[in-house]
Amino acid sequence: SVPGGGTSIELWLPAMATDVNAEDSSSSVVTPLPAQQEGAATLPPVGDGRLILVVDDETGVRSVTSGFLRRAGYEVLEASSGAEALAMVEGRPEISLVVMDVMMPGMNGDEAARRIHV
């Protein structure tokens, strides 16, 4: 991180193979690929139970992100908008981290983050 320059992160997700039936492209079967590293799927949780707020207007993205964090040992709250996130942070000072989408309708993630930070 550099002040005023933003932050870069890497997020590693398990690979999945998708088999699509050529005759019926609306159906697909998703099969997990073998782990690239020995024991990758059985790593112990690293979280210490701290509370993280996940904010995204897309239910699927919010759900997947929250699931990864819960499996890592964190407590997770979810919000579907910047305004909802702002209200939650104001009412829950124990929130340690906010993971937020930038592109959301209404109050976007950038505006919500500015208001939360102040």
TrEMBL record:
The keyword Phosphoprotein applies. GO terms for biological process: phosphorelay signal transduction system. Keywords: Phosphoprotein. The keyword Phosphoprotein applies. Transmembrane segments: none annotated. Pfam families: Response_reg (PF00072). InterPro entries: CheY-like_superfamily, Sig_transdc_resp-reg_receiver, ST_Response_Regulator. The modification 4-aspartylphosphate is found at residue 101. Residues 51-118 form the Response regulatory domain. It comes from the Bacteria. This is Response regulatory domain-containing protein. The lineage of its organism: Bacteria, Pseudomonadati, Pseudomonadota, Alphaproteobacteria, Acetobacterales.
